[in-house]
Specification:
- The protein has helices at residues 15-28, 38-47, 68-75, 78-81, 94-103, 113-120, 147-151, 157-166, 181-192, 211-216, 229-236, 245-248, 261-266, 268-286, 289-299, 309-316, 347-359, 369-376, 379-388, 414-419; strands at residues 56-61, 85-90, 108-112, 130-135, 141-146, 172-175, 202-205, 222-226, 239-244, 255-260, 319-321, 327-329, 401-402, 408-409.
- By secondary structure, the protein is an alpha/beta fold.
- It folds into 2 domains: 15-138 and 254-321 and 331-405, 3-Layer(aba) Sandwich (D-Maltodextrin-Binding Protein, domain 2); 141-248, Periplasmic binding protein-like II (D-Maltodextrin-Binding Protein, domain 2, 3-Layer(aba) Sandwich).
- The protein starts with 14 loop residues before the first helix and ends in a 6-residue tail after the last helix.
Length: 425
């Protein structure tokens, strides 16, 4: 259960989140929230009437701050509360995690949202039917530049655009996986600055923990990655802050709890129990600043993220610096729960990634947006799990958001959205 404590100063509800909670509260008046009362659920688990089909689970993760809910669920025993035992497997790259997940060597994983859809659509590898059980976090990724690039004048989007225009194709930008979230944030942000990510710069793939070392070695000039690696580069003196992913899309989806569709279909009780364990872990993390501090301490260990606690702590609490003297409290920091608005697997979120695959030429044919999202995002399982925990649920599976370039994304007309921007493949 979440511990009592003062809320983080950055956790005030945005209008979109207030609307989510208002709709969830209305829905809570029905039967979903009382789907399985606490006492009955405890007895049912003890009696095995709704027991997980598989209890010992191997779950993959990449060393990033947003693996926190998976680690906390294991470290604080939320997995065992629901009849599960997580064995966590730290993976070297997203490609390695993908391959193990598809091959069944991992039962589930902390995974890039876009990775799941890339595998579903067979982009760049073997196609496999996938399942996104829930969203694990929102916000908290970053775009950083080598300090040498900042010294050359690139300290924000407009100044970077001027530098790139003067030296086209001279700069190498790194992201973490071809269909991943970081590639999509980087491309969208560059395009919003008037920089064509396919023609004006070169992009390569680098695993998250290797970003700063590659900058230090002079192999890349800028990168998009999850925390703590942006802040690590600043503390190390190697890189500076250019933008945050929440600048691109406030409260955007980031990592998901992923498994194969076959696993979710064979083991629905296990999948539901995983969601419940991670919902409780997510709720615990967001409950107080003290819990976030404890989370940073836990995940900083060598077996998890393997960096000093302070490198994780500042940005998990929303405290930012740019490495050039400016500090601020971000209004949209990394969130893990936010009364459930983070965790619902919105169909429109999945459709957005497909629209960007189309925009950048990763998909050459129009996908069946709604059908694919409805098959991948396991909204029914999520509703059962969240309802049993009394967590607010939306009345509709889509949401609307305004992105950095002023475009409104709501899941409507995704193919038109893919090509309405002046810069695309």
């Amino acid at each position: 259960m979440a511990q009592d404590g003062d809320n983080d100063e950055n956790d005030e509800a945005s209008p979109a989140r207030r609307d989510f909670l208002r709709r969830g509260a209305a829905l809570a008046g029905g039967s979903l929230v009382s789907l399985v009362p606490q006492g009955t659920r405890a007895s049912a688990w003890a009696g095995g009437s709704d027991a997980p089909e598989k209890s010992d689970l191997r779950i993959g993760f990449i060393p990033l701050t947003d693996c926190a809910s998976v680690v906390v669920a294991s470290a604080l025993g939320f997995d065992r509360k629901y009849g599960l035992r997580f064995t966590l497997s730290r993976e070297a790259s997203w490609a390695a995690l993908r391959d193990k997940l598809v091959a069944g060597r991992l039962d589930a994983a902390h995974a890039l949202y876009g990775l799941v859809y890339g595998v579903q659509l067979g982009i760049g590898g073997t196609r496999c039917d996938m399942a996104a059980l829930m969203t694990l976090n929102a916000n908290g990724q970053g775009i950083s530049a080598a300090r040498t690039l900042a010294e050359a004048g690139a300290r924000d989007g407009p100044s970077l655009a001027r530098l790139v225009a003067a030296k086209p194709r001279a700069f190498i930008f790194a992201q973490t996986f071809p269909t991943g979230t970081h590639a999509m944030w980087l491309y969208y942000w560059l395009a919003a600055q008037g920089i064509d990510p396919m023609r004006d710069v070169r992009t390569i793939v680098v695993p998250p923990p290797q970003m700063v070392a590659n900058v230090r070695a002079g192999r890349i000039h800028a990168f998009c990655v999850g925390e703590p690696w942006n802040h690590y580069g600043i503390v190390d003196g190697t890189s500076v802050h250019l933008a945050s992913s929440q600048d691109v899309w406030p409260d955007h989806p980031e990592k998901v709890l992923a498994t194969t569709r076959g696993f979710a279909e064979r083991c629905p009780n296990t999948a539901r129990a995983m969601i419940m364990a991670l919902l409780e872990a997510s709720r615990w993390i967001d409950a107080s600043a003290a819990n976030r501090r404890r989370t940073a301490e836990v995940i900083s260990a060598p077996s998890y993220v393997n960096v000093p606690v302070d490198v994780i702590l500042d940005r998990i609490q929303g405290h930012y610096q740019d490495g050039l003297g400016r500090t601020w409290n971000d209004p949209n920091p990394m969130r893990f729960h936010a009364e459930g608005s983070v965790n619902f697997p919105w169909l429109s979120d999945g459709m957005w990634f497909m629209s960007q695959f189309r925009r950048w030429g990763l998909l050459t044919e129009t996908p069946e947006y709604s059908a694919v999202a409805g098959a991948v995002n396991q909204t029914a399982l999520y509703r059962e799990a969240a309802g049993a925990l009394g967590i607010a649920l939306p009345s509709a599976p889509t949401r609307a958001s305004r992105l950095i370039d002023g475009a409104i994304w709501s899941g409507e007309s995704p193919e038109r959205f893919a090509f309405q921007h002046p810069i695309h493949a």
